[in-house]
User: Fold this.
Amino acid sequence: MEEMRKEKGQVLYLVIPCYNEQEVLPETSKRLLEKLESLIERGMISRDSRILFVNDGSKDRTWEMIKELHRENPVYQGVKLSRNRGHQNALLGGLMTAKEYADMVISLDADLQDDIDVIDQFVEKYYEGCEIVYGVRSARDTDTFFKKFTAEGFYKLINLMGGEVVFNHADYRLMSRRALEEMENYQEVNLFLRGIVPMIGFQTGVVTYERHERFAGESKYPLKKMLALAVDGITSLSIKPIRFIVFLGMFIFLCSIAMLAYSLIQHFLGNTSIGWTSLIVSIWAIGGLQLLAIGVIGEYIGKIYLETKRRPRFIIEKVLR
Ligand code: UDP
Ligand code: MG
Assistant:
């Protein structure tokens, strides 16, 4: 593979989606600024580098705080979405805004659960020629058992279902402007960035880090949102669930042939009045399977319905720069 080293001192944008993050913003903005300044001092990145907060329709003082930060120091910039559109869309809105000015963009969460000291390694890898660098969690010691179990199960399930995601990589990653320009061509409305980014290709790298606890505020990803993300992830990456239903249908058809043979034999042997149990069990089982199957297919039809509308994925109300 050809090595394409890049010239140092390019423009880095940090993109941070924020939904009701007033508790963490003061600390987060301070720590990110220190990081950015240290990178600038060492000549790693350009003085035009910026920290871009995306306000995803917060109901608290988040946007006011972003405005204050911007007034104090223009290194902080802000994008205000017209309303809450969810993490993935907020992130996309930020990435697409940053792409216009940056050579490379790193996306991260407002709570700094993802270790910001590995940003140096992200940037190094970019200069070594990577267009995309994935941040991968090496340990989840601080996550609760439940979070760890559901989150790791999520990656396994998606890969099993034919989606290609990087294990234990969330949305902490570096993307070059070139990669972002390619990503812009993926126009789907039901967005699952983790599944889209690996499809882009190019030279990629991985950086591992330990995930910390949220230092303030609480998770904006309750179980309901996690499940929605999982369903979105699977259904927007693969049609394996539908294929699975087809096989299940075939299997049940074969079973019913066997049952037919069995009942005929029983009939000729004269044992037919018993069998209420097996009857009732199969009615419930088949009924349940049919509902499940219709549900899965419905999920895809719903998705087609939403995609055909071609609605905008985010609407930017205001940009501070
Ligand atoms: N977030 C967002 N919009 C939402 C929900 C979350 O922009 O509707 C942001 C949130 O502010 C944070 C990031 O997404 O920066 C990840 O959320 P969180 O840390 O609560 O998730 P967890 O780490 O618990 O999975
Ligand atoms: Mg978090």
